[in-house]
Amino acid sequence: MNDIFRELEEATLDQYDNYDLPKWLADPVLVVARNPLAYQGKEYLIEILLAQVREYDVYAEAGCCKWAYDHEDIKRTLGWLEEER
Amino acid sequence: MAIYLDCNATTPVEPSVASVVMRFLEKDFGNAASPIHDHGVFALAAVEHARGQIAEVVKARRDEVIFTSGATESNNLALLGLAEAGTKSGRRHLIATAIEHKAVLEPLEEMARLGFEVQILPVQADGRIDPQRLSDALRPDTLLVSTMHVNNETGVFQPLTEVADILSNRETWWHVDAAQGFGKELEQLRNPRIDLISISGHKIYGPKGVGALIARKHDRQFPPLRPLMFGGGQEQGLRPGTLPVPLIAGLGEAAKLAVRNNAERIEKCRMFRHKILPPFLALGAAQNGTEEYTLPHVLNVSLPGINSEQAIKALKRVIAVSSTSACTSHTRTPSHVLGAMGLSSEKVEQSIRLSWCHMTPEVDWSEVEHILRALRG
């Protein structure tokens, strides 16, 4: 179970240190990544969050198609993680 | 219950895939095309997540995955979908191989009826196409080449890397029917020269009724496909209709597992193969398709002196196997694949296909051998 959380932490730090993921978004994602017990049973949402962090792009909706994930996607998934979903 | 050895017809569903499907059937039932509320937004997020999981298998982009009802529809969209481009450009020459599935051969027959010239390449005795023959067949007006990835009857994988080299400087579109190899043999489908890849959910431990056409974009443009159906504009205008979110999410989960567990699955299939080969060799069976090019979960053999139909019936309490592809077995027509490989009609009638997976339990092979010997006697 912890693998996916470790991957989430690594991906978030990578996107924050080397790319455009802002601190205000990286911080709540890291809270999730570092608390696997609190999110046990929600691995499907963690996988979605991981994909969104890995494919995060500030300009995701630029151009004709949405080809990456943006801050709205990540915020929304963080919200779902706090719900009963 | 007989042990299921017909995984090329369809695979069992992975438990985690079934869980994901059930989640979107029972609880998260939103319509991905209605993201005006949270139900729809969550469904859309699941669809996009699945799209990424599938794209990852072949190192494509998420927006290059078009969901369909399965590989048959994907093949039809890839082939018939290019007809208008061929007609407009005057490129009416199509190339395919003699061992393609009916889901490729029959759309091509339809294209021939529409005025296209279809050239079918023979295969060698080892079950593979000869890349040089493909090279020789190419013409300036060749619109499309369609080659399968892994044959459904023999498990033999095709030399796609060599085909990619041949097509590297050609403008010909290239479609690969990967229903049997997607998620199993990973490397060849990652070749960016392949324009169109057809895949199926129920061959990779996912649900039936869902598949995808992966259409690689060039300069952010799809190959010049036209949709076969109209009404809704979903899937970037190429495949209308409400998306079956439970099936798509299940296919995504299956694709994820196919990558994550690939090496482990192959190893389990190899171990099973080590046990299956000795009894069949003891019976004098001849393998159809060269072992070197056969994926580890398939064995197609001709059993001297034993009719396949009788063998399948005699074995039905021990193992469940088939003699040909699931899509043609109900018609009782002889295998066009084995025929194309040069097998005599006698050997074709003696052929059975065994296909297993990482979830297949142990089989009592001595009992199988005993039953087959008795049949011969």
From TrEMBL, chain A:
This is Uncharacterized protein. It comes from Pelotalea chapellei. The lineage of its organism: Bacteria, Pseudomonadati, Thermodesulfobacteriota, Desulfuromonadia, Geobacterales.
UniProtKB/TrEMBL annotation, chain B:
It catalyses: (sulfur carrier)-H + L-cysteine = (sulfur carrier)-SH + L-alanine. One of its GO terms (molecular function) is transaminase activity. Its cofactor is pyridoxal 5'-phosphate. Residues 3-360 form the Aminotransferase class V domain. PANTHER family: CYSTEINE DESULFURASE (PTHR11601:SF34), CYSTEINE DESULFURYLASE FAMILY MEMBER (PTHR11601). Its EC number is 2.8.1.7. SUPFAM superfamilies: PLP-dependent transferases. PROSITE patterns: AA_TRANSFER_CLASS_5. It comes from Pelotalea chapellei. Keywords: Aminotransferase, Iron, Iron-sulfur, Metal-binding, Pyridoxal phosphate, Transferase. Belongs to the class-V pyridoxal-phosphate-dependent aminotransferase family. NifS/IscS subfamily. The lineage of its organism: Bacteria, Pseudomonadati, Thermodesulfobacteriota, Desulfuromonadia, Geobacterales. The keyword Iron-sulfur applies. The keyword Glycoprotein does not apply. This is cysteine desulfurase.
